[in-house]
Amino acid sequence: MNGKAVRIGELMRQHEAKLGQRDASLLDSLHRAVWIKLPLEVMRDCGRAVQTLGGILAVSTRETFLNQTEISRHAGLPLGTLRRHLKTLDRREWITNQGRQRTSRGFLRRTATLTVTEKTREARRFYGVLPGWVSRDLKLPWCARAILSVWFARLMKLNAARKKTNYYYDSLEVFIEETGADKFHFPLSLLERETGLARHSVIKAKRCLAETGIILLSTNGSESDSMLPNLDYRIPWFPYSNE
């Protein structure tokens, strides 16, 4: 092995040491993983194209000159998919593609200017949360990603509630156990309304997430299934962090 390869390997080990262990729990991912916001109104209107919008919002809430490769990295999507989504978002007026604008010196920019519209900024109040590791490591169908984003948003709210107790509860696991697992009941009607998915797609998504091992799904005989976090589920190390 040459010296350059040894140096790269050492840098990788140092980077991993800074991030901590090479895997983490679902609850750890709230703090350490990169995630994007998916406005639910846009999800209902444009479906999976909202993931590209999430990548744009991770860069800017107004306008951005970043190339599509950068947005693709944040969204966790291939460039071909991203470009199709941009056309959909532009057509539905969630963004405005202004094309290649000129710099102050009169030269054309290398990339198009994408402007986030006012209705998108207003729609950001209600959103799902999609962690980057979901797009990077899991081949989930869109319906499962949509449902998972709503589920993760609930998990984040519970964690925020725990912080308001001045960390009276040692961990989010204990907080969930002592304050009631009923917070993880998700009626089909709620998930349909939040995501815009058809009922059969919601059912498919729940089963997919259970089979993947992310959630523990139990049916109580009604339309409301308990979607508890699987505390034994492990996530690979995170290459980026929101912190």
Can I get a quick summary?
Helix content is 51%, strand content 15%. With 243 residues, it is an alpha+beta fold.
Explain what this protein looks like in three dimensions:
The protein has one domain (22-236): Arc Repressor Mutant, subunit A (Orthogonal Bundle), CATH 1.10.10. Helix content is 51%, strand content 15%. It has twelve helices and ten strands. It has helices at residues 3-19, 29-32, 40-46, 50-59, 68-75, 79-91, 118-123, 132-137, 142-164, 172-179, 188-195, 199-212, and strands at residues 23-24, 35-39, 63-64, 95-97, 114-116, 127-131, 185-187, 215-219, 224-229, 235-236. α9 crosses α12 (199-212). The two termini are 35 Å apart.
Helical percentage: 40-55%
First-residue to last-residue Cα separation: 35 Å
In terms of DSSP E residues, the strand content is: 5-15%
Mean pLDDT: 79
Number of domains: 1
Largest sheet: 3 strands, antiparallel
What is the succession of H and E elements? Answer: HEHEHHEHHEEHEHHHEHHEEE
Count the helices. How many?
A: 12
- Poorly predicted spans: 1-9
Radius of gyration: 20 Å
CATH-defined fold name: Arc Repressor Mutant, subunit A
Q: Report the count of strand segments.
A: 10
Strand order of the largest sheet: 3-5-4
What structural class do you assign from the helix and strand content? alpha+beta
**Silhouette:** globular
Q: Which homologous superfamily in CATH is the superfamily?
A: Winged helix-like DNA-binding domain superfamily/Winged helix DNA-binding domain
**CATH class annotation:** Mainly Alpha
CATH architecture: Orthogonal Bundle
